Amino acid sequence: MERSEAEEYARWFRCLADATRLQLLRVLAEGGEPMTVGELVEAVGVGQSSVSGHVRRLAADGFVWVERVGTATYVRINEDCLIALPAAAAAIMGGDRENDARAAVEGAGPEAAS
């Protein structure tokens, strides 16, 4: 693993080292549709200013996309992250785990490769 790749992964995992941000990503991933900050506040039970701050951090690290429409702020998950994150974890662990993660993301799963 190159140093630049390791630094990128470290930045990703630092961003994810917060329970609220993990909850927000889960809600967005499960919903599959953009959500307003108000909807995210209701979904995770945290105050609006806190959710807004976490959304800003997730957006800065590329996990979500943010769009303002009038007075509303819509947040949607960056679907590329749903694919890249398991591959990043596998790359860190080394060995065949990277191939297993890619196969799982593609729907085949590691068992199908045997």
UniProtKB/TrEMBL annotation:
Q: Per its UniProt entry, which superkingdom is the organism in?
A: Bacteria
Q: Where is the HTH arsR-type domain?
A: 1-97
Which key words are in the record? DNA-binding, Transcription, Transcription regulation
One MF term from GO for this chain? DNA-binding transcription factor activity
Q: Which Pfam families does the protein's record reference?
A: HTH_5 (PF01022)
Q: What is this protein called?
A: ArsR family transcriptional regulator
Query: Which organism is this protein's natural source?
Result: Egibacter rhizosphaerae
